[in-house]
Amino acid sequence: MHLTTLPPKRMLAFANTAFPSFVLVMQVANDTIIMLIGLVYCVIQPIIAPLALIYFAIGVLIWKYQVVYVYVPLVESGGKVWVMPIILPCQPCKAPLLAHPNCT
To answer: Which residues contact 48 (CB under 8 A, 6 or more apart)?
Structure first.
């Protein structure tokens, strides 16, 4: 079923769907607590260190997938942000190279 063939109420509901955005603050807070617990209690009970390692290894796999396929960026510039600070200052460096007689 195409979006243009949906009834108006369903089209409005589809347009108001909020896609999840990447919230780093909550993830950093949760990971910091797990790291703190792992570091403090691994001295008392050494089995905690491998369990914390497994937690973070699984977390890396899950967050890689979610960042690439699930979360929608809040701001998308299409690469235009790099024109002023990177590309424009490099233009004077390219001019002498392009003026060289062996440059084709």
So the answer is: 37, 38, 41, 42
**pTM exceeding the 0.70 threshold for the entire prediction:** no
53 Cα distance to chain centroid: 22
- Cβ proximity of 94 and 41 under 8 Å: no
Contact criterion met (CB below 8 Å) for 49 and 42: yes
- The Cβ of residue 34 has, within 10 Å, a number of other Cβ atoms equal to 15
Which run of H or E residues covers position 39?
Answer: helix 24-41
Domain parsing of the chain, residue ranges: 20-99
pLDDT tens for residues 47-73?
Answer: 999 999 999 999 999 988 888 887 776
5 CA to centre of own chain: 34
Burial (CB < 10 A; 0-12, 13-18, 19+), residue 51, is: middle
